[in-house]
Amino acid sequence: MQPHPAIPPFEPPPLSVMITESGKLILWIVGLYRAVCGVLLLGTALFLDLHSVGIGAPNAFITTAGLYLVYGILTFWWVQRDSQGLPLPALLLALLAGDIAFIALLMYAGGGASVPLSILLFPQLAASGWLLRSQMAFFHAALASSVLIVLDSWRLIDGLIAPAQILQTGLVGFGYFATVGVALALGRYTKASEDLAAQRGIDVANLEQVNRLIIQDMQDGVLVVDLNGVVRGHNAQVTRLLGGFGRMRGGMRLAEFSSTLHDYWRRWQEDFAEPLPPFKVDATQRLLRVRLVRIGSGLNGGTLIYLEDLGRAQGEAQQIKLAAMGRLTASIAHEVRNPLSAINQAAQLLEEDGSVAPEGHRLLTMIRANAKRIDRIVGEVLQLNRRDRKQPEVIALGDFIHSLVEEIVQAQSMAAGTVSIQAPPELGVIFDRGHLNQIVWNLVRNAWQHCQKKEASIRVVVRCRNMRAIGRPTEHTGGASGTDFRAFLHDAAGWHRPWPVYCARADRCQRCDARAAAKRPGREFSHDAQASGLIRL
Q1: What pLDDT score was predicted for residue 244?
Q2: Do 325 and 341 belong to one domain?
Q3: DSSP letter, residue 510
Q4: 281 and 293, same domain (yes or no)
Q5: Whole domain around residue 292: which residue ranges?
Q6: Mean pLDDT over all residues of the chain?
Q7: Residue 191 in domain
Q8: Total domains in the fold of the chain
Q9: Quick one: 371 and 399 in the same domain?
Q10: Of the residues 86, 161, 268, 463, which has the maximum number of CB atoms within 10 A of its CB?
Q11: Same domain flag for 186 and 55
């Protein structure tokens, strides 16, 4: 087995087999030149006295010129067809072979006066070098030079030409090679320029597509306006901000989009430094800030108009403030735990020391209870700041509700039988376990604070009805439990089992007054939330 060479062998570039549009144009020009040469040769043979110009065989010359004219017309028609039936190298060789044959016949029939006819092959050879752009073009020059030298050698033997004619034919052959070489170099340079231009065109198209996608995904509205106030383009946010759904399109005047924007644009054209105040759109009730940027120069210039929704900017600022307040609250809650631990420890030491009078034990109990309550509140605040860490998982609601309610009963010192549970074991939910734990804990604890503290005063019911799993407060609640507890099935993926996702509320709600609803025992609370996986408190 022979090892592979370190340097790959030289492979010549593949020949062009497809004819491009520029190649068809060159073939058309050369075909027209060939037909014109046939017309000129035949016209010269018919209207001039061939004997007076030194033509040795006038009849043969006229016949060959006529045939060359027919050949030129046929080839001119052939190259204009959509499909020539031959690859480019074979087509060029066939056309050149016909030219060489007819020129050789004309030179032999013309005798000594036919010397200048060899220059008629220069355009055909230049076209071969330009189109082939490979060393095959030099074969065309060698073929033409060889045929002419052989022909002149034969004519020299017959005594039709002088010996110096061989030298002239050699010089013409050298000109053939030079013409092919120059045309080949220019053709390669042109091909490289065409490839580079095509690649740049692809890059520009890709960049334009990327810019279009970026502009369409921008939160701000963007309009491109020319010097005449005509909108050349805009993104989808413009229609959302200005409220022109279905009627805004490119080519409209800016005044048709918004008269206020047109006025701002006109004022900005007069004075670039003039500040433009925000304006409110009547159709959408949005407060917009306008920013204009000059693009281009001269007659090709224009204006780029940015529309910024100040309501969205204010909302983002509010979110930043809320995040900062959340971090501050978490820091304060963390700092509160240190003195709270000291208070608990001091109360425990006083109780263990025995120096407190019996009537003071009640005060120590109050201190520990309130310290425990503050610690629970601090823990909820800290957990609220970590609520963005969700880990959804499949939870069997039956086992989860039973175990959690037992934990709540022990923590809240509830009497046995206070909480009644009705949860099918086959019902499941996709939810974050920690969040669902806190939701159910809050609901049951709120119900315990406001119920009559009797047996089955709190009833937890989880069932699937009409593709919804619904929980409702019991009829025995004596106060406002403030719960609105619904689950929506996420059946879009075609699940065979109902996997409800809960939506829970505590205390008051913006769309339903839970306290007023709690005054009508047994009534199911509901709201119109449609998004699955949504938690509302």
Answers
A1: 67
A2: yes
A3: S
A4: yes
A5: 219-312
A6: 75
A7: yes
A8: 4
A9: no
A10: 161
A11: yes
- Residue 231: CA count within 13 A, CB half-sphere: 22
What pLDDT does 114 receive?
Answer: 62
Look at the pTM and tell me if it is higher than 0.85.
no
> In DSSP terms, which residues pair with 484 in a beta bridge?
505
- CATH number where 367 lies: 1.10.287.130
DSSP-assigned letters across all residues of 273-322: T-----EE-TTT--EEEEEEEEES-GGG-EEEEEEEEHHHHHHHHHHHHH
Helix (H) or strand (E) holding 337: helix 310-353
**The last residue of a domain, from among 295, 312, 329:** 312
Per-residue b or e along 223-236, where b marks 16 or more CB atoms closer than 10 Å to that residue's CB: bbbbeebebeebbe
Q: Read off the tokens for 429.
A: 């939910």
End residue of a domain, out of 312, 337, 354? 312
User: b/e for 410-427, b at 16 or more Cβ within 10 A?
Assistant: eeeebeeebbeeebeeeb
Q: Which position has the higher pLDDT, 320 or 517?
A: 320
Residue 503 lies in a domain: yes
Tokens of residue 375, six digits: 């610690």
Dihedrals φ, ψ of 234, to 5°? -160, 160
Q: Do 399 and 451 belong to one domain?
A: yes
Query: In one letter, which amino acid is 396?
Result: A
Structure-token match 């060698």, residue found: 142
Give 209-236 as a DSSP string: HHHHHHHHH-SSEEEEEETTSBEEEE-H
Least confident interval from 82-91, 399-408, 419-428, 513-522: 513-522
462, 447: one domain: yes
Same domain, 128 and 181: yes
Q: Please tell me whether residues 85 and 124 are part of one structural domain.
A: yes
DSSP line for 81-130: SS--SS-HHHHHHHHHHHHHHHHHHHHHHHGGGGGGGGGGGHHHHHHHHH
Are β-strands 221-226 and 231-234 bridged in parallel, bridged antiparallel, or unpaired?
A: antiparallel
The tokens of 312 are what?
């969205």
